[in-house]
Write a structure and sequence with these properties.
CATH topology: Rossmann fold
CATH class: Alpha Beta
CATH architecture: 3-Layer(aba) Sandwich
Number of helices: 5
Radius of gyration: 15 Å
Strand order of the largest sheet: 5-4-3-6-7-8-9
CATH superfamily: Vaccinia Virus protein VP39
Bound molecules: S-adenosyl-L-homocysteine
Structural class: alpha/beta
Distance between the termini: 35 Å
Largest sheet: 7 strands, mixed
Number of strands: 9
Helix content: 10-25%
Order of helices and strands: HEEHEHEHEEHEEE
Oligomer: single chain
Amino acid sequence: MEIHDPLVTDPAVLAAMQRVPRERFVPEDRKLFAGRDAALPIGHGQTISQPSLVAYMTQEARLARDSRVLEIGTGSGYQAAIVAELSDHVYSIEAIPALAARAAATLRACGYDRIHLRQGDGYHGWPEAAPFDAILVTAAAPSIPPPLVEQLADGGRLLIPVGEPSGPQELMLVTKTAGAVRTRALLPVAFVPFTRAGE
Ligand code: SAH
């Protein structure tokens, strides 16, 4: 879809947003609203994120073709598809089995057959596939999971909404340069909660 957000200016990201058909990632009874720049329910208490925010996070990840990218919170699979338009090595983890299965089917049906998908608790990252040039977390955590910072490559960028589920959240950018980790807030956001296995 077309993005109109002054924060999103990267032409490659805008083109990727145009190429991925969001309606394919939205449940049947919400397809009418797929073209809106809004989050939509996808079942199991979860949502497909707002497209301009998907675009902004993708832009701030500064992806290249050969980037290794990890997403936590596959959800509908939409963000993973956008990332796969720009990078060849995409990994995504989803906690809820039914959503993980549905996203796998949707992504396959849309021709994204090279995305590596896993069902589980993304807190632990994907150590066997690390390090990652970019990690995108699409659920709000109370704090930044240390395993994700560990799995960031040198020069890597981790984008994660941080805050309490019903309180204020900030989209944080964590960078690692020559081993030094820096964190800064980018934007106030509202995401569904990051959950831990067993909660
Ligand atoms: N990126 C998704 C947005 C999904 S909403 C999209 O484009 O559609 C966030 C998702 O994160 C939900 O599906 C939720 O189940 C998942 N999630 C929450 N905590 C998680 C965790 N610890 N590990 C993996 N997935 C998690």
